[in-house]
UniProtKB/TrEMBL annotation, chains A, B:
Belongs to the ArgJ family. The keyword Transferase applies. Its EC number is 2.3.1.35, 2.3.1.1. One of its GO terms (biological process) is ornithine biosynthetic process. Substrate binds at residues 156, 182, 193, 280, 404, 409. This is Arginine biosynthesis bifunctional protein ArgJ.
Amino acid sequence: MPVNLPTLDPSQLFPVAGLELGIASAGVKTAGRKDVLVMRLAKGSRAAGVFTLNKFCAAPVRICRSHLADTGEIRALVVNTGNANAGTGLDGYERAKEICFALAERLDISPAQVLPFSTGVILEPLPAAKIIDALDAAIGDLKPANWFEAAHAIMTTDVAPKAASKKIVLDGKTVTLTGISKGAGMIHPNMATMLGYLATDAAVSQAVLQELVSWSADRSFNSITVDGDTSTNDSFILMATGQAGNTEVADTHSADFITLRDAVLEISQTLAKAIIRDGEGATKFITINVEGGIDRAECKAVGYAIGRSPLVKTAFFASDPNLGRILCAIGYSQVENLDVDKLEVWLDDVLVAKDGGRYAGYKEEDGQRVLKQSEISITVKLNRGAESATIWTCDFSYDYVKINADYRS
Amino acid sequence: MPVNLPTLDPSQLFPVAGLELGIASAGVKTAGRKDVLVMRLAKGSRAAGVFTLNKFCAAPVRICRSHLADTGEIRALVVNTGNANAGTGLDGYERAKEICFALAERLDISPAQVLPFSTGVILEPLPAAKIIDALDAAIGDLKPANWFEAAHAIMTTDVAPKAASKKIVLDGKTVTLTGISKGAGMIHPNMATMLGYLATDAAVSQAVLQELVSWSADRSFNSITVDGDTSTNDSFILMATGQAGNTEVADTHSADFITLRDAVLEISQTLAKAIIRDGEGATKFITINVEGGIDRAECKAVGYAIGRSPLVKTAFFASDPNLGRILCAIGYSQVENLDVDKLEVWLDDVLVAKDGGRYAGYKEEDGQRVLKQSEISITVKLNRGAESATIWTCDFSYDYVKINADYRS
């Protein structure tokens, strides 16, 4: 079961003016399952995205990149579960294009104004005709209050739906932000994907939107790991409909930008952390703070070395303070000229290591106490600079192997 | 149980003239356990080594590097199990030095002629006094025919001892090579280590010996992975006593060099593969061949991405040909400008993927047949160059989690 993931309250997922969501069943993999989501954006909306760096990226990812580069006005998104349309070559690309054409025709927009997304098993042909047949039903279901249903529709083997919503004030106007995500790890069983969608009715310039999506992804979705496997389909999309009536946020030095950025970050982090809380087989939620680095990149490198180490993660599963494993991971984290004698390792408020070895005042029972918690923080102080980064991960249990060794469901 | 690892035959482990081995019990962690090994080299011997790149490297690793740089004549090695003497700071360094001094005194050599090694739990102080107390017994036990016993003495949680031996002819003289290794993965439970020792009575120049140890380590111990965790103590030492009577091998273009190199490589690979066959929880032995790369580094990067992916390894454990996971790992392997449409993926003799997707003639039952074997090869043809590399790994089972989640034994 997910680690301390609160149950979603549909009434707390605020509609975003200018964005409607519609759900349908296409039977991509399982008959009757709600597996198609269409999002329609009002005229004048803007969108920006970040995508997987996997070179075997899925056909829809390639199309999204191209459509976002082509036009300033994305008007619709279409998501299917049950099949990732990855490792499908030219044929997969053409099938994803067909879906864009079919949706564009029905919504009276151009195919380049559609962003397609797929999630599920890879190396299997996408049943595009089934998805196209379901588009009318999804369009008939379009409404702004469908976020809760949408969060369910994009789940594959997620145990719980993931969504977050917030209202802020910009320029005297109330602005809403609502987002959903899916994923039970950086990688789902069978190579399905992490997907995140965050919409606001704020007016935001395209340049600022792009800055916001990259900056917040770096500090949320790009700061989590379950198993170190980077999916073929990861996508995070930020949309702004501009219907809140605020003066367009176009200056990254303005107070409104900071307010908006903080809200985007808060929701992105909530959605990203929800993926870890629902991580495959997870029993513990682990926050790794790396401080005092020369740059953010080396802090992330140290955090990820710890966060993806099977030895650290199995020790945490067992509540065993076998903390040498953390030092070992720091040691192979590929940070140049790291002086291990200068760093400190903390477990919550317990100092574990300093001066290159175990801290003289460290007591095993203190480590044991922290390890038994379901929420644990590790803090590494590199003591060589002023930068920091935080990585979120979960432990590694029998159930991770069980979930991933099960035959493709 | 280890995967297809033959039982050692003590009569097939040939003594190496000029090298004696002695074993004793120091009670480092468990009373009565044979946990100390001393190796004594005759005058005129040479040694060369490669060590972990982990920055939290153990105190003995730092001393080995320094002693190998100081002197051309290493005369003794001392190994203890039960404690890695890593993450122990200056105090750990001094304790390892004390052991070198004590052994040097007893063997009438200088402390800089001793190489110390430790393997076991990290972040715990090394009981140096216990080890020093056991040195006389180990020295009393010194004899050339002790390789089988030595292979057992360096085990920690290895299920089986690991050794290999071979005779070749150089310059008309019979030359013997014998080696031992330990490790049940790149990392043992509790951060113990991979250790490898290979000795020959051939006469070999120091430069050639150094070349041989690096070249063969790259193609053996540095081509295996169980869990991607690089230990704090990994060491591989090549020793040459020069007692076989051959003309010193000093030219890397000579026929003798090639004969010796091939024999060193064969034994190194046997010892390295034995570690994978005895990998934590392993049920399958997997060989990953990556061909057609621009350089060896990118071939290794692709091989390691596949070989350390928990998703690939759990699918192999389940005998599930969920082969999209292999494509996904290739895709995130950080190879620059990789054109995924050009590559081919084979499972033994079954072509699985080409042209960026599943091969049209691939049948699930063919993949299933191969996956059910205990020995499986994956071949990736990058089709962009003439270089290649091979990585060996094992699958990822419930027992991996069990072994590593157990309290430190």
